[in-house]
Amino acid sequence: MRLVRERRRAENGPAMNSFAVGKITPLLVGFTGLFLALVLGLYIGSSDYRPILLGVPAAVGLFLWFGTGQWFWPITLASSYLGGTFPILGGSFTPFQILIAIGVGKFMVEDVVMRRVSFPKMDRSLLLALAGFMIIMTGHGVLDRFGMRFLGSHVWGGRNYVNVYVGLIAFFVVQTVRVDPRIWNKLPYLALAVTSFDVAIATVTTIFPALIYKIYPFYSAVGPAGISELLTGHESLGERIGAFGNFGYILIAIILASVPIWRLLTPGNLRRMFLSVLAAVSVVSSGFRSSIANFVFTLFVAGYRDLRLGVLTVVPILAAILFALSAINSAVIPLPKQMQRALVFLPGNWDADMVRDASASNDFRAQVWTLWWKDVFPKQPLVGRGFGFKSSWADPTLNRPGAPDYYQQMVEVGNIHNGLFASLDAVGIIGTLFFVAWNVILLRRTVHVSFDRENPAGFALRFVALQLAVPILAFWLGAVTLGTFLPGQFAMAGLFLRLQRLSVPKPASPITPSQPPLSQRRRTVAPV
Q1: Which of 50, 68, 210, 227 would bridge with 72, disulfide CB 3.0–4.6 Å?
Q2: Which long-range contacts does 357-366 make (Cβ < 8 Å, 24+ apart)?
Q3: Cβ neighbours of residue 438 under 8 Å, at least 6 residues apart?
C-alpha cells in the first residue's frame, strides 16, 4: 500500500504543481496590481508626479531586461537612431545611453557571471588605430576630470565623454553577446520604425505647435517649425525637418541591402523602385543638403559594392534627376520651400529666402572655421584640446546669431561644423591620423560585403555595412563632432565585425585514413 501511495503521489505531482502555480500566479499579479494602484493613488492625490514619472522608465527598463530576450540588443542599437532625449529624467540622456547601461549590466550578470564568455579575436590593425586616438582622448578626459563637477572638474563637456565611452563599451559587448543571427536581420526594420516615430512626432508638433508643451517634457525631438511658430507667432513654411532625411536614408539603405543596385530597374522590382522614390522625396523634403549627400553616398557605396567601377554609370543618372528638379522648379511649378532649401546648391530660380538661408549657413561655416584655424588650433596642434570648455560659454543668451560672442562660443564648445576640423580640435594631428586609419580599415571592409546566401545574417550585414560606410564618407565635411559621431559608429562597427565572422567559411576537417571516402559515407542530417 505504501508503494502504491508513493506511485500515485509521483504521478499526480506535476498536475498538482501546475494547479498550484495556476492559482498562485493570478493572486500574486492581483496583489501586485493592488499595491501599485494604492501607491499611484497616493502620489496622484498629493499631486506629486515625480515618483510616477521616474517609475515608468524603471518599469520599462525591467521589461526590456527580462521581457525582450535576445531582441534586447537589436532594440538597443536601433535606439541610436532616435533624434531626441528624455528630459523627464532630469538630464539629457539619450535612449541609446540608457539602454547600453542596462545592456552592460545584463551582459555582466547573464554572460560573464552566470557562464563563461569567450571574447572574439579582433584585428590588430583596428585595435591599434582605436587605441591611438582613444588614448589621447582619455588623457584629455583625465585632465578635464571628464567634464563632470562631481569629479572635481572646472570645465563642461562631460556629455561628450560619456557618449564616446558608452559607444566604446558597445563596440566590445556587441561582439560578445549571444544573439541568434537571424534576429539581427530585424535590426533594419527596427531602425526604420524608430525613424518613423521621429517623423510622426516632428510632423504632429509642426502642424499642431500647442502639443509641444505636452510632448517635450517626455521626448525632446519635436518639430523645429512648431517651436519657431510658438516663439515668433508666425507660421514657418521653410523650416527644415531632419527626421524626414533620416527616414529616407534608412529606407534606401534597407532597399539596397536587400537587392543589388542594378536590379532596381528590372520589372520585377517595381515595389522597391517605388520605395526608392519615396525615400528620395523624403530626403529632399528634409531641407538639409547633408541628407541629400547621405542619400547619394549610399547609392555610390552600394554601386561600388555591386558594380565596382561600373558605379560611374550612376553619375549621369543622378545629375539628370537633380537638374530635372531644378528645371521643374524654375519653369513649371515651384517646389515646396523645404525642397528648395535642400536643392539650392544647384543652379536655378530658387526662393530668395531659401537662398539667403543657405548663404547664411555658408557664411557661418566660413567665420567659425577661420576663427578656429587662427586662434584655437595653433595652441595644441598635435594632441588637440579634448571636449572640455568653460561653463561661461554655455550661456544660452550667447547661442543666437547676432550675439557679440556668437562665433567665439561655437568654436569654444567645439561646434565647428566640419568633421575634419572637429577631429583635429579634439585629438590633434596625431589622434586624427589614427582616427583616419581606423575609418579607412572599416571602409575597405564595408565595400567588400556580398550577397552571401550562406550567412544567416547577410541582410543585416549589408545594412550595417552601409550604415558604417556612408557616415564615414560624410563625416569629414558634415556638421558633426566626435562626441556625436563615435557612439553610433562604435556600436555599428562592433556589430559589423560580429556579423562578418559569420561569412568566413570554417575549414573542413581532414579525412583520416581510417575514415571511408566522402562518396561512400552515409548521409546524415545534423540535429537542429
Answers
A1: 68
A2: 357/238, 358/289, 360/401, 364/401, 364/407, 364/417, 365/417, 365/418
A3: 126, 129, 130, 132, 133
Q: Using one digit for the tens of pLDDT, what is the confidence trace for 233-258?
A: 555 545 678 899 999 999 999 999 99
Residue found by looking up cell 515646396 in the block: 336
Between the CA of residue 310 and those of 115, 300, 470, 471, what are the distances in Å? 49, 10, 19, 22
Smallest Cα–Cα separation from 484: which of 172, 163, 170? 163
> pLDDT class for 31, splitting at 50, 70, 90?
low
Question: Grid coordinates representing 272?
Answer: 522597391
Identify the CA nearest to 180 among candidates 81, 55, 72, 96.
72
pTM of this prediction?
0.83
Separation of alpha carbons 451 and 463, rounded Å: 11
Q: What is the pLDDT, as a whole number, of residue 396?
A: 75
DSSP character string of 324-351: HHHHIIIII-PPPHHHHHHHTTSSS---
Q: Where are the beta strands (DSSP E) in 408-516?
A: none
Measured CA to CA in angstroms, residue 386 lies from 126, 138, 154, 439, 481 at distances of 22, 9, 14, 20, 11
Amino acid identity of 309?
L
CB 107 within 8 A of CB 65: no
Task: Tell me how many helices (H) and strands (E) the chain has.
Answer: 20, 0
Question: Which neighbouring-strand residues pair with 156?
Answer: 389
User: How far, in Å, CA of 319 to CA of 316, rounded?
Assistant: 5
**Coil, strand or helix: which one is 67?**
helix
Whether the predicted pLDDT of 125 surpasses 90: yes
Q: Is the dihedral of CA 310, 315, 318, 321 positive or negative?
A: negative
**Joined grid coordinates for residue 425:** 580640435
pLDDT class of 376 with cuts at 50, 70, 90:
very high
Summary mean pLDDT of the chain: 82
* Set of cell numbers at residue 446: 564595408
- Beta carbons within 10 angstroms of residue 67's beta carbon: 10
Cα gap 350→290, rounded to integer Å? 18
Q: Which residue has the higher pLDDT, 40 or 178?
A: 178
Closest CA to 77 of 167, 212, 182, 199: 167
Better pLDDT: 338 or 224 = 338
pLDDT at 236: 55
d(C-alpha 341, C-alpha 362), whole Å: 13
pLDDT for residue 292: 94
Alpha helices in 308-405 (DSSP H): 314-327, 337-343, 352-371
Angle at 75 between CA 72 and CA 76, to 5 degrees: 85
Residue 293 has pLDDT above 90, yes or no: yes
Mention every residue, 6+ apart, whose C-beta is less than 8 A from residue 359: none
Q: Are 61 and 41 in contact (CB under 8 A)?
A: no
Distance CA 511, CA 504 (A): 21
Whether the CB-CB separation of 488 and 80 falls below 8 Å is answered with: yes
Other Cβ atoms closer than 10 A to 332 = 8
pLDDT at 10: 46
Q: How far apart are CA 112 and CA 110, in angstroms?
A: 6
